[in-house]
Amino acid sequence: MAPFFLSPWAGRLLSVLRIVSGLLMLFHGSQKLFGWPPSDHGGGNATGLMLVAGILEFGGGLLLLIGLFTRPVAFILSGLMAVAYFMAHAPQHALPIVNQGELAVLYCFVYLYLAAAGAGPWSVDAARSRNTGQVVS
Q1: Tell me, what DSSP letter sits at residue 137?
Q2: Is the pLDDT at 73 greater than 60, yes or no?
Q3: Measuring CA to CA, which residue among 36, 81, 38 is closest to residue 56?
Q4: Alpha carbon distance, N-terminus to C-terminus of the chain
Q5: DSSP structural state of residue 86
Q6: Closest by Cα among 100, 103, 104 to 84
Q7: Which of 40-49, 85-94, 114-123, 128-137 is predicted least confidently?
Q8: Model-level pTM?
Q9: How many Cα atoms occupy the beta-carbon half-sphere of 51 within 13 Å?
Q10: DSSP 8-state symbol, 9
Q11: Out of 5-9, 11-15, 82-86, 97-101, which region has the weakest mean confidence (pLDDT)?
Q12: Burial profile 19-50: b = 16 or more Cβ within 10 angstroms, e = fewer
């Protein structure tokens, strides 16, 4: 059986998944920290746990965007999204479709996948591994 036509693109699509999800997470953090882009929820005046979440989202999103320290950053962000789901969404209802927690669940598992799969070929991690001779997936 012939390979699926996208199989040769798997590594590059992994990089695209990392870049897009990192950029989206960066924007979540920038809303909390800087109030940009503007949202109905306000922003730019985060304190306490929201400040910690904003820092992790902005910094982690930036690191994922460029593909630096992808595995540990993705693991931390996966945990952050699990905490966000169970603290903010799950108490409202058991089902994510009802409690509006689908995005937190999806981010959690995308980041868990990135923690296992790595950054892909279009990343600082891949460039660093080529320079040092280490194998990084």
Answers
A1: -
A2: yes
A3: 81
A4: 26
A5: I
A6: 104
A7: 128-137
A8: 0.92
A9: 4
A10: G
A11: 5-9
A12: bebbebbbbbbbbbbeeeeeeeeebeebeeee
Q: Nearest-CA neighbor of 137 among 128, 127, 126, 46? A: 126
The two structure tokens encoding residue 50? 């929201």
Residue type, 37: P
Tokens of 82: 């699990």
Nearest-angstrom CA–CA distance, 103 and 132: 37
What six digits make up the tokens of 98?
């009802």
- 85 and 104 Cβ atoms separated by less than 8 Å: yes
Could you identify the residue written with the tokens 């909390």? 32
The residue among 108, 117, 27, 32 whose CA lies nearest residue 65 is 27
CA–CA dist 95, 99 (Å, integer) = 6
Token representation of residue 110: 């995308």
